[in-house]
């Protein structure tokens, strides 16, 4: 894989909003963000002078403040950009970015008929599962980011996973979660495998992000074939 393919993963939020998710983006000046209820992620150029000589750090952060509004959360995801000192830190979490290794590994095998696609009509039960399992941010319109798959037991949604960020050539697998009463049955592995197979079939490569403290998830993804590409830090700030 050439360097330009991997470079898209250095700014997965910005690259998604400028490309595949442009229809879900809002923009002010040099600042980008997802529409409300889709995702909280926002992006600014890591080096504004390189992208536009007339831009400065001050104008970029002023753009983001105008885009989001006073008191709102600026969820910078894994961006290394640092806001001005009056932007109050809200959270900071160590994590890692993992990628599919490339052409040397076959796609996962297809899974059973109980793996079903989830749509807008499934959002209430998806939100309920997220509330019980806390896999990460998921809102009323997050399902619009891509394909979401689930597993039901006796009609109840007990596990799900889906597609989130879409930088060029890549699709992020996210929202991987299983209800406590359904764990230990391999649901997460089957859902991630099914999504990875779909991504590979359309000529892209899967990647994902995981909290460094979530050792069980890291072991699961490594067992499926994902490799760590980089350590990342997830950060959020309050707009002054």
Description of the molecule:
By secondary structure, this protein is of the alpha+beta class. Helices cover 27% and strands 30% of the residues. It is built from seven helices and eleven strands. The chain has helices at residues 3-7, 12-18, 48-51, 57-68, 123-133, 187-201, 215-224; strands at 25-28, 31-34, 42-43, 73-77, 88-99, 115-118, 148-153, 156-163, 170-178, 205-211, 227-238. An eight-stranded mixed sheet has the order 4-11-5-10-9-8-7-6. Strands 1-2-3 form a three-stranded antiparallel sheet, sandwiched between helices. The longest helix is centred in the last third of the chain and has 15 residues, at 187-201. The radius of gyration is 18 Å and the shape is globular. 36% of the residues are buried. Residues 50-55 have low confidence and may be disordered.
Question: What is this structure's SSE topology?
Answer:
Elements: H1 3-7, H2 12-18, E1 25-28, E2 31-34, E3 42-43, H3 48-51, H4 57-68, E4 73-77, E5 88-99, E6 115-118, H5 123-133, E7 148-153, E8 156-163, E9 170-178, H6 187-201, E10 205-211, H7 215-224, E11 227-238
Parallel strand pairs: 9-10
Antiparallel strand pairs: 1-2, 2-3, 4-11, 5-10, 5-11, 6-7, 7-8, 8-9
Task: Sum this structure up briefly.
The chain is α+β, with helices and mostly antiparallel strands.
Label this structure with key terms:
240 residues; alpha+beta; 8-stranded mixed β-sheet; 3-stranded antiparallel β-sheet; 11 strands; 30% strand; globular
């Amino acid at each position: 894989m050439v360097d330009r393919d991997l470079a898209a993963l250095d700014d997965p939020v910005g690259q998604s909003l400028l490309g595949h998710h442009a229809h879900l983006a809002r923009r002010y000046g040099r600042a980008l963000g997802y529409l409300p209820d889709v995702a909280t992620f926002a992006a600014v150029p890591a080096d504004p002078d390189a992208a536009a000589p007339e831009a400065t750090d001050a104008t970029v952060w002023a753009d983001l403040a105008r885009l989001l509004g006073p008191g709102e959360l600026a969820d910078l995801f894994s961006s290394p950009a640092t806001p001005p000192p009056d932007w109050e830190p809200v959270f900071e979490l160590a994590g890692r970015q993992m990628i599919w290794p490339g052409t040397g590994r076959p796609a996962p095998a297809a899974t059973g008929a109980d793996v079903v696609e989830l749509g807008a009509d499934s959002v209430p039960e998806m939100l309920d599962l997220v509330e019980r399992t806390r896999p990460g941010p998921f809102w009323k319109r997050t399902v619009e980011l891509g394909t979401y798959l689930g597993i039901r037991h006796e009609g109840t949604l007990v596990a799900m996973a889906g597609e989130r960020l879409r930088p060029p050539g890549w699709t992020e697998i996210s929202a991987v979660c299983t209800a406590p009463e359904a764990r230990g049955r391999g649901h997460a592995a089957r859902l991630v495998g099914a999504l990875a197979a779909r991504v590979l079939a359309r000529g892209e490569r899967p990647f994902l992000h995981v909290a460094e403290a979530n050792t069980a998830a890291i072991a699961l993804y490594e067992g499926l074939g994902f490799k760590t590409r980089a350590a990342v830090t997830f950060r959020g700030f309050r707009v002054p």
